[in-house]
Design a protein that fits this description.
Elements: H1 2-9, H2 14-35, H3 37-44, H4 48-70, H5 75-81
Helix pairs in contact: 1-4, 2-4
Length: 87
């Protein structure tokens, strides 16, 4: 909601809004990953390709949603298109 407000009313670029959000997540979650680094790397063994795919495609989809929001689409319109299992 904050990102949609920034894009729609403040004129912030969707890419900048997503980048800022992701940087905040890295700053907040990075220390947790660093503290349990070896255990996390062990759990991620063999899962890096799917994780990278999600890491690239998810922000791209989010940028598209923010772009549509900036063009006047309501977030409710996108929610109706979402599968019921995701609600």
């Amino acid at each position: 909601m904050v990102d949609a407000y920034a894009v729609r009313h403040l004129g912030v670029s969707p890419v900048i809004a997503t980048l800022g959000s992701n940087l905040l997540q890295v700053v907040m979650l990075g220390p947790l990953f660093a503290r349990g680094g070896e255990a996390a790397r062990r759990r991620m063994r063999g899962q890096w390709v799917p994780a990278l795919a999600v890491g690239v495609l998810s922000p791209l989809a989010y940028v598209l949603v923010l772009r549509a929001s900036g063009m006047g689409a309501t977030l409710e319109r996108g929610r109706r298109a979402q599968p019921a299992s995701c609600r």
